[in-house]
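Forum: Protein Structure Q&A
Topic: Joint prediction for protein chains with partners

I've read a bunch of threads here and the consensus seems to be that you should model interacting components together rather than docking separate models afterwards. I'd like to see that in practice. Below is the full input, 809 residues plus whatever partners are listed. Could one of the regulars post the assembled result?
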Amino acid sequence: MEIINFTAYKPAAIRGGYTDKILRVDLSSAAISIDTVDQEFKEKFVGGRGYALKLIWDGTSAETQSDSPENILVLSGGPLCSEPRFPGTGKFIVGTISPLTETFVDSNVGGHFAPLMKLCGFDAIAITGVSHKDVVVAIDGDKGSIEIIEAPQFDQETELGALSYGEALLNLITEGQIHENIAAVTAGVGALNTRFGIINSLYFDPRRKRLRAKQAGRGGTGTVMRQKGLRGVVVKSALPRIGANNPVDPKGVKEAGSKLKRVISQMDPKQLRLSSWGTPVLVEYMDRYHLLPVQNYQYGQHPDSPKVFADVFLEKYFTKRLPDGCYLGCNLACAKGAEDVQLTRGPMAGKTVGIDGPEYESAAAVTSMGVFDPQFVMEYNWYCDNYGLDTISMGVTASFLMECYQRGFLTEEEVGYRLEWGNVKIADRLLHETAQGKGFGRVCGQGVRRAKEWVAKQYSIRTGRPVDSVMAELNKFAMEVKGLEFSMYIPKESLAQQGGYGFALKGPQHDEAWLIFIDQIHNELPTFETKAEALKWFPLVRTWFNAVGLCKLPWIDVRHPEAASTEDPSKNHPSLSYYVDYMNATTGSQKTMEDLLEDSERLYMLQKLINLRHGKGTREHDQIPERAMGPAFPNEYQAREEYYDQWLKEQLGLHELPAALEERHRLLMQLRQKAYSKLCDVVYEEKGYSLDGIPLPETVEKLRLLDRQALDLLQGHGMEFMKRALSN
Amino acid sequence: MAMVVSVMFLGAQRSVTKKRELRISVSDQACVSEVVEYVRREFPQLPLKDILVTVNEKITSFSQPLNPNDKVTFLPHIGGG
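Posted by a regular:
Agreed with the consensus. Here's the joint model:
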């Protein structure tokens, strides 16, 4: 392995959850440097997403594209990451300018990488520049060395995969003795050939005796990594994990962790049983409540759905009775996996592999293509991970193109084959073509927004119909906002979730707000005002989790037994109080929940400002496709005709409806669009924006974000205000 | 007069009930609480505390009267990951 640059260093000690050091690597010049984080930076931007946002706000400009050398790939944990005495502390954030949205995106991922990065002395790693040849960054906290090395080359099959490459790389570094004290992030060939490449977080699982992988899936972070010429980042430290986070109050940490672990062990077996079934258990619930995105979100249910319910994976694939946490000490342990699965399709057919997953999202992505084959779900999951593709964006783009074919916007000649729903061979072929950048896969690999533009142009050339007119039709069912594909829930019948997707700053990913059940099933958000309050509160709490390095599931998917008797059961305040205690015990702060929300609001607002800077921050960019609001076409109305008729009667106060289904469909969509527009107004007011979705200067000032750049940006958007005090 | 309603068992509930659906004959005046009590007696191991009940995919109260062929489900808390 040729060493391109090397730096010796002494790993900073962890105090109160922080090392106060950020490692900077510039791949253009192969420069390595270490920044010290000052107190104000730490207090204002917390960690994780906050650090990524601030580094990108300061270090890039409106002209920065995802593939610009100045774009920064930030890997950042948080002060609460790396604590086995508390559940779900292996999370970190990968943040960057996205090749799909061309604004800030981040994706959270579990595993051992961030805890080991912290033990190596870093709260974050910020990577800029583009290397002329593929490289690996290797950080050895035990030796005190940081190296940029020429990426080792292996055989062709190994080179193609993020999993296979990572395993070969770690085997090389450890001389075939991969262990728990080393972890890596890698991206595969699919990340290079598409805009929705993922980053795999690889760690050794001693129980399964193999490397396992979790994924930073959304927004194309892996694509940025490969565009920079970066094949992997390796971290290594043999320091003990227990007590490693060096909290100010270890007893307080232990108490808070014990309380939350007790809730999980008592309540999860009575609720979703994520510890036994993993997230695929959601497939059945989504199908039951018309939320499964079958055939590009046209239908919420399908008679074949039981073929991909969780019990099928549990019986046929998952290893049973094995704690499967992605980091030490998590008793929710939802990271299910399977061993010795023989691949039956694709270039590695016949090979036997261990598979991490599927998560709900991956199984649902397969149903979006109309496929209900559990073996294909497993293989789709594994190939996407190995190629380095986001299972969600891959599935949504493929299903959008399938619907284009269904509705005559695409022809067999253009695709090269009949792009039909529910055909495993076709779905499989498109997956491999996309990952390998071949044939029609080159269109699919661009994601829905750019594929939509390609289809519109082709159709216009073929038919003579104006491109704008074709785009108007495609926009109805192209499931993207801001350039990111929707995650795998149908929001048609929940206005709050429509907002949850539309206002999400990174694009329609549910990690800002998942309000479907609270709104649609529980009817806990009956007014615009209650929806707006939820659309402010939930994103702030969820932002906090992404800033401190924690998994949200122990809070959001395991309800505390005392939550039911609180004013807002869905907010699960009793569990949240343990998180506040954990934060204070770790860092020595004396914050309340309100303080944490204010910290989150600062980060949320900074992300909004970056969106504004990159042309994605106004009302027009929060608009969602008709398919997200209701039945985009009459066939969807017809599929739930009785339900939609009843809804219309209640809304209009009528006993009789027009006889023509098309007219009822038109009336319904008119009401839905009007409601979404009103929701925008109310939510913008709640969040402190103008009616055009632009932050009001006083909101930005209140959060101490009004620096020169923010001032110029807001003035450039016509925001008038008096003389203001600038923040750093 | 009697009528038949269905109880649908979802997800992990089936590991207790070993069946997807239970069809129950109840009086035509029956309400949700009667079905819940029946299921409690039939499957004492089934955790029904703090569980919401839906009828035909809509959240409901225990005093809600039932209609023939209604589908009753027990919904655990789902927060959305």
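The longest strand of chain B covers residues 2-8.
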